[in-house]
Amino acid sequence: MVSRKTMIPYLLLVLLAHARWVSTADLANCSLVKNIFILAGQSNISGRGGVINHSNRPGVANETWDGVIPHECEANPSILRLSGGLRWVEAQEPLHKDIDVNNTCGIGPGMPFANTVLKRDPSVGVIGLVPCAVGGTSITEWAPGGFLYKQMIKRTKAASRCGGRVRALLWYQGESDTKTLEDAKMYKRRLESFFKHVRHDLQLPTLPVIQVGLATALGPYMELVRKAQREINVGNVRYVDAKGLQVGPDYVHLTTAAQIQLGQMLADAFLRI
Q: What InterPro entries does this protein's entry cite (predicted)?
């Protein structure tokens, strides 16, 4: 298992290795994308639905994805994803396979979100998903100027280079900030700063944000973080509560069925904007 200390440098090397200039094929796909959605946060938006840990030892990960793709998560020619190499490709599960590279990725809310939006509003046009989430990350690791933040801004700007409109940031994060009282108390201030900087750096002052209220936690201060999420004092931020959705045997990650339900809830929230 790659340690937390080496995760970010390793991610940087992987993304640099895949980065290249835009090809003719990229430009062809790029011109199709009309609606861009950023997926950011930690593991539950990266997607762990269908991921099975075969280890019986605490703290040891021996994980595989079961490969089951429900029809709500199936590929659609009107849904593209921005790859780790900044190329538009047809979106397929797992969406974060070349982004959240130190973890085993499975089903997340992104595909059911996009499929639901298209089903309910076929006129919306081609959807482009921009996966940016990385499992186990705290809000301080998403601070403006940090690696994850800069990669998200870079990827979003690349996604919109052909004129597609960034429609919303879908944000699900906070489990890692329930471990200590200090982090839980600081969460609201840090998250507000994050949202404001994203809008400033993308030059989208009213960018809609749809944030997910925690369903699970890695520490004892979940309710403090959930309270901070509900009380965010930034305009045009919608709150979708994941609490009560089905959780897997690790008591942290949403199941495939729960991810589908969450994606549909996110779609409902977006379509109400």
A: Carb_Esterase_6, SASA, SGNH_hydro_sf
| Annotated catalytic residue 96 | no
31: confidence class by pLDDT, cuts 50, 70, 90: confident
Q: How confident is the model at residue 13 (pLDDT cuts 50, 70, 90)?
A: very low
| Rounded distance between C-alpha atoms, residue 134 and residue 119, angstroms | 28
Asked whether residue 18 carries a pLDDT value surpassing 80, the answer given is no
Asked whether 75 and 90 are in contact (CB, 8 A), the reply is yes
Does domain 8-271 match CATH 3.40.50.1110?
yes
Given 26, 43, 46, 183, the catalytic residue = 43
> Distance between CA 82 and CA 50 in Å, rounded?
23
| pTM score | 0.90
What's the length of the chain? Answer: 273
Q: Has 83 been annotated as catalytic?
A: no
Which residue in 46, 176, 177, 253 is the catalytic one? 253
238 touches 231 (CB < 8 A)? no
Q: Do residues 167 and 271 touch, judged by C-beta distance below 8 A? A: no
SS (H, E, C) the chain: CCCHHHHHHHHHHHHHHHCCCCCHHHHHHHCCCCEEEEEEECHHHHCCECEEECCCCCCCCCEEECCCCCHHHCCCCCEEEECCCCCEEECCCCCCCCCCCCCCCCECCHHHHHHHHHHHCHHHCCEEEEECCCCCCCHHHHCCCCHHHHHHHHHHHHHCCCCCEEEEEEEECCHHHHCCHHHHHHHHHHHHHHHHHHHHHHCCCCCCEEEEECCCCCCCCHHHHHHHHHCCCCCCEEEEECCCCCECCCCCCECHHHHHHHHHHHHHHHHCC
Residue 54 annotated to the active site: no
